[in-house]
Structures are given as C-alpha cells and as structure tokens.
Amino acid sequence: MERDVAIIGVGMSKFGELWEKSLRDITLEAGMYAIFDSGVSGKDIDGIVIGNMSAGRFTGQEHLGAMAADMGGLAGVPAYSVEAACASGGAAVRQAYMAIKSGEHDLMLVLGCEKMSDVTQGEAINTVSVATDWEWEGMFGATFPALYAFMARRHMHQYGTTEEQMSLVTVKNHKNAQWNPWAQFQRPVPLEIVMKSGLIADPIRVLHSSPVTDGAAGLVMCSADLAKKFTDTPIYILSSEQASDTLSLHDRRDITTMDAVVRSTKSALKESGLEIKDIDVFELHDSFTIGEIILTEDIGLTEKGKGGKLVEEGVTEIDGKYPVNPSGGLKARGHPIGATGVAQIVELALQLRGDAEKRQVDGAEKGLAVNIGGTGGTSIVHILGR
Amino acid sequence: MERDVAIIGVGMSKFGELWEKSLRDITLEAGMYAIFDSGVSGKDIDGIVIGNMSAGRFTGQEHLGAMAADMGGLAGVPAYSVEAACASGGAAVRQAYMAIKSGEHDLMLVLGCEKMSDVTQGEAINTVSVATDWEWEGMFGATFPALYAFMARRHMHQYGTTEEQMSLVTVKNHKNAQWNPWAQFQRPVPLEIVMKSGLIADPIRVLHSSPVTDGAAGLVMCSADLAKKFTDTPIYILSSEQASDTLSLHDRRDITTMDAVVRSTKSALKESGLEIKDIDVFELHDSFTIGEIILTEDIGLTEKGKGGKLVEEGVTEIDGKYPVNPSGGLKARGHPIGATGVAQIVELALQLRGDAEKRQVDGAEKGLAVNIGGTGGTSIVHILGR
Fold first, then answer.
1. How confident is the model at residue A2 (pLDDT cuts 50, 70, 90)?
2. Do A79 and B378 touch (CB under 8 A)?
3. Residue in B45, B57, B71, B80 to test binding to A, most A beta-carbons within 10 Å
4. Mean pLDDT, all residues of chain B
5. CB A259 to CB B1 under 8 A?
6. Do the Cβ atoms of A156 and A295 come closer than 8 Å?
7. Do residues B24 and B73 touch, judged by C-beta distance below 8 A?
8. What is the per-residue pLDDT across A99-136, written as a single tens digit (0 to 9) for each?
9. Is the pLDDT of residue A181 over 50?
10. Over 50: is that where the pLDDT of A1 sits?
11. From CA A185, how far away is CA B365, in angstroms rounded?
C-alpha cells in the first residue's frame, strides 16, 4: 500500500567550526534532538539513513550507517548513507520517503552531516571538488567559486544582474540568520561590507559564498497513520522529486538556468497539486548568492533574468510575498555539505509548525526546498504541508 | 500499491587491475551491458542508484549519480549513490527495490563500482580502513586483515577450525572462478600454495584474502508487471533485508558470529516464506575465507563452529548440497568494494536463469546473497527466485 509520509521530529547540532567535536558527536547530537522532539523512543526506529558526501576524505570514516546506529545505541537497526554531492541531505530525505512509502520501513531517523574543518584549507577545497566533474573541471583547478563565477558573469551579461543584487542576498540571509540559534553566522552584515569583501573568483566575493562548516541535522519520519500517535502537528511530505543534469557545467545548453531544478520543481508541484504561488516559504540552495537568484527564477517565482530584482524589491524577505531562506540559508546558517538538505527540511517543518520564533513566516502552511548537487548536476525538491 | 520487483538485465565489467580504464569507463561498461541484456532503451530508465564506498578518495570523484546519468546519455534521470562500506552494492540493490516498491520509480538502473588500483598500496589500505571504526580501530592500525585475524584465531580456538579449512575455501573459490569470464583470477590454485602463501596477519595469509580490484556491475530492475514486457525470464526479488551491528569488532558479544547476518537472514527467509534448505545457490561475502566459513554458519547451513567441516566435506562445491560462491566469490572474482554486492546479484540472476555456463548450479531456482560491510557492522541479504 502506498502511504503518506510525515515528519514528526526535528533536530540540529550547532553549525560552525566545531573544533572540539567529532563527526560522530554532532551526528549523534542532531539525531538525539530529533528523537526527543518526536517523542518516539529508540526501539520505535526501524531504519536510519544518512546524507553525507565525503566523510571518508574529511575524517577517515565511512560506513556511517553502522556508525550512527552504534553511536545512537541502535546497533541492529538497518542503516546506510546516501551521496548526491551537496544534495546528499535531500537525497537522504527522499530515500526515507521512498522506504516508508514502500512499506519496508515504518519509522526512520534521517540524518545529514559533514565535518569539514578538521583538514587543511587546501584539502577542504580539493575535497569539495569531488562534486565537480573531476576529470573535466576539478582536476584542472575549476573549483566551485570559479564555476559559479562563470554562471554569475553570464547572468550579469545576459540579464543585467548586478553585484549589488548578489550582495543583497547575503544581507538578507545574514539578517535572517541572527534569529536562527543553530546558524554559523548569527549577525547582520551591511551591504557595503559585502561589496568590499575579498574577491575569490570575479565577480564572486567571499561574502557571496557559503562557508566551510561542521554540522548535522536530523528528522524523524514515519507513515502518516503512525504520526498521529506521536504528535498533534505532523508535517506531511506532499511531494519529493529529483532530477539530474550533465555533471560538468560546460555541457549545459544554458549556464544561467538549472534544468534539473526546473524539471524537479515542475514534477513536485504537479505531484502535490499545487502552483508555485501556493507556497508560503522557501529554502533554496544558496551555496553562492547567484545560486539563490537563479533558483528563484528556475522554480518560477519570477521570469528568467529577474531574480536580482526580486531580492532588490524585498519580495524574498521573511515578510515579503515569497520568503526565501528564513533560516539564513547556506550563506549564513552554514553549509556542512551532507547536512544542508536535511537542515532545509528542519527549517520548513519548524516554519509550518509555527515554531520558528523570531524568523517565523506568518501563517506558513506550505513550504518548498531545493537542494542542489554541484552546479546543478543534481536537484532534489521537497514540498511540505501541515 | 506495494509491488513485486524483478531483475530483467545484468551486466559486468571485467574485474581486475584495469590500469587503462577509469571509474567512469567501467561503470558505463557494466551499465551498458545490463541495459543491452534487458532489452530496455535508455528512455525507459527513470532512476539510477549506485553502490560505491570511496570514489572520493580513490579517484577524486563523488557525485557519482550525476556522473553515471551523464556518461550514460541519461542526464535528467534522478540518480544518487549509496554507501554501506563493503555492503554498498547490496544497499544499492535494496534502495532500488524500495524505490520501485514505493511506486516512485518503475524501471531503474542499479550500478556498483570501485576503482581501487589508481592509488598507492598504502593509500589503498588507508582508504579501505574508512569502513572500520576509524576512531577505535583504523586509526590505531587495525586493518581488515588484522580484525579478521582476531575472528579467525578465536574461531580456531573455540571450534577447532583449521588453517587448512580456511585454505580450502580459497581452493574452491579459485576453482569456480576459472569458469567466470569476469573474474579477476581465472585459475585454480592448489592447497599447498595457499597454505604456503605469505602471512599477512596470523593466521590470515595473502591467499585467504580478497584482492584490490577495479570493477563494476549493473542490473536493470523494474516492477514485476513491467518485467514481462521485456523478458521471458524475469528473476524476482523475493525478499530484501538489512541489519546493523556495532561498528567496532571489540564491542560485539561474540566475534565468531555476525549477529547482523543472523538477523537479516532470518528476516529474509521469513519474508519469502522459505527455509534455508529451500535455497539452491549462495553468494556469501568472503572478503577473507574465514568470513565464508562464519557466514555458512550464521545463515544456518550448519551449526555454529562447523563451517570449516562444510567446506572440507565438499558441501559448498558447485555440485554439493549447498553451493557457495560459484562465481569465485570476493576471493577470486575480486572485490571492487561498491561493485561486490551488485555482482553477487548478477551471479544469482545468471544462475537462476540457467545462464551460468560451466559454473551452473543444476536446476537452481532460489538463490541467496549476503553482502557484509566491515567486520559485520552491516549485513544485507537478498533472496531471489525465478
């Protein structure tokens, strides 16, 4: 029997440079908070899925499924991890969604984690580059800032997008993050500081880029019928869709559009029977601020080329028509790669439950998250409803 | 609607030290063969899942989902990879099984791959150690040969298992592999050579150990109703079960038993309504030959402690009562980590179709595969039937 799937618990570790904690510490922390929040006990959990990209390179540890089960006192429970570059967290949510829908699992712990700060800066850059097309991009020195710089420059050329607009995304997301207790940067940053921050790959500046972050996020998900036993405020997954694109940027028909996002968003809206204007709150993958601008276009909040205007006009503010990244997004909440897609869903669940405190979007009933891998080689879209 | 799931196509790359090929070459090769074998065309495929452990460390490339979709001319198709150490391949099969059962996917390409020979011997050993408990085992130099040596020594002490019995597993699996065109070592090896081969971690010798291997394996899986459109000989997945155990060996109640195997096998038999004696052919995870001996006990082919006798008495030969590893197993087919679990299912499908040529188990109708992660921290069991 095909079943509806609900989120009944959410948890996060603090995001940041967590020198004093290990990968297993933060993963356990997020998982325990999610379990506490849900009211289930360990013995109710019949499966664990973890989103992670590169624990093997960052920390020397793979086999994270057994690790998480063991650390959580749940040795015995089936557990594995999934990888889809920066969309690994979204992939984990989608795997749990399918596993529960299939009837093979009833109540699962979903985790996302990455510990990025225990290696040198150079090794961190090389490790993140495993998500590029290594043979055609990464090996030749094309890091993600460089690839997103191509996209930004072309977007500026073709649509007149400005450096100020890219900077305004930073200003908005930092403003939002001051109200997010788990965010890496809980402070506003003025426009002029963003505009004057160091240039990494012209036109992308350091404050247009998401940081290197340690962090983990967790969800308890179960079948909708089971959810009522544990909570009065289950959040339902109305649709879960995924698409891929060419791995390398240079193979795309248009580097200012992420076709995988367009496709997976269309499918997700169709599956849920909603239109984009029915959605109240958005978490969009802003690994670079040009990414948020492109995504607002590709999911249909505005026409292609007008994403810059959207942020300029305040439409994507928490009190705007289409609030984007009330959490602070990847830019200010931080971007522990495997955790990001799960953290997006945590934020949406809190928003739909009305538990997002000072960053609450008034009366939010439907939320949409886009989690991207690489430069858009993977896109995973979830629509949630209460 | 919960649906039955079938395998309609299988494919393999040659296993071995493939210096002249890249990870994407061999992955593409296995996938293409599986697609050709199935008779589907690219446009029928609506999802890709890849089992892989450490491509990030071995080759610099993660984001393998998008890579495989792109290389296969299938950019657009949702794709991701799953990791459960040496059970990553089995995990990929299980993910596809759930994805199809959930109704989210109808026809999927399942791949397993690892390219292990492009790094130094030392880096290969370190990379494989990501599947140990890194903080409590690997970091202190406890490699897999060392950990399995503990298990072997204890098994010998407790049950009188002999070095000769461990060596006879090698002899059997090498004998079988001479008839497997994809195997890394297609030649028999006499008992005295095994017994005299170099000692790695007493009592484990080099010829008790699976090799470092490059290789990929592929399956086309779909819903049972769809299968009939493409083939007259679909092979059905009768059950798919998984369990975990403590990540580190020293935390187990008994290091001569893999509890995760016991549990997942029991569940799989129950789910399929079969008893172990109903199974005609077995693929068991023999990363070290003591592993095959332990698994024959843990799945119930004999009592605990009598696995050594089983191989001695010829019970696990191709023409024995319980043929184990007609493919040559990990020992002789080779063990490209993420590919192994998929290759096991390829072999069982060929056996049940009657296509296993000189290594065919006469009239095989039911097959069982056990894919292990680490020292048994993960176990994934599939039962197949025609």
1. low
2. yes
3. B80
4. 97
5. no
6. no
7. no
8. 999 999 999 999 999 999 999 988 999 999 999 999 99
9. yes
10. no
11. 60
Residue B223 CA to residue B102 CA, distance in Å, equals 10
- Residues in chain B, overall count: 386
Q: What's the structural domain count of chain A?
A: 2
Helices assigned H by DSSP within chain B: 23-38, 55-59, 64-71, 88-101, 121-128, 144-159, 163-177, 191-196, 224-230, 259-272, 289-298, 307-312, 329-333, 337-353
Which tokens is B355 given? Answer: 């296509």
- Mean pLDDT of the residues in chain A: 97
Q: Which two tokens stand for residue B146?
A: 């060392």
Predicted pLDDT of residue B1? 45
**Is the peptide bond preceding residue A203 cis, with omega within 30 degrees of 0?**
yes
In a domain, A125, yes or no: no
Same-domain check for residues A105 and A182: no
Evaluate if pTM is beyond 0.80. Answer: yes
Q: Chain A residue closest to B79 (CA)?
A: A244
A215: its two tokens: 């962090």
pLDDT at B2 over 70: no
User: pLDDT tens-digit profile of A240-257?
Assistant: 999 999 999 999 999 999
At B300, give phi and psi (nearest 5°).
100, 20
CA distance, residue A184 to nearest chain B CA (Å): 25
Same domain for B230 and B369, yes or no, is no
Per the domain annotation, does A111 fall within a domain? yes
Q: What is the CA radius of gyration of chain B?
A: 19
Tokens of A24: 């297993």
Q: Which of B 74-103 lie inside 8 A of A, CB atoms?
A: 74-85, 87-88, 91, 95, 97-99, 101-103
Query: ∠ CA(B288), CA(B294), CA(B296), 5° rounding?
Result: 110
Mark whether B172 and B286 lie in a shared domain: yes
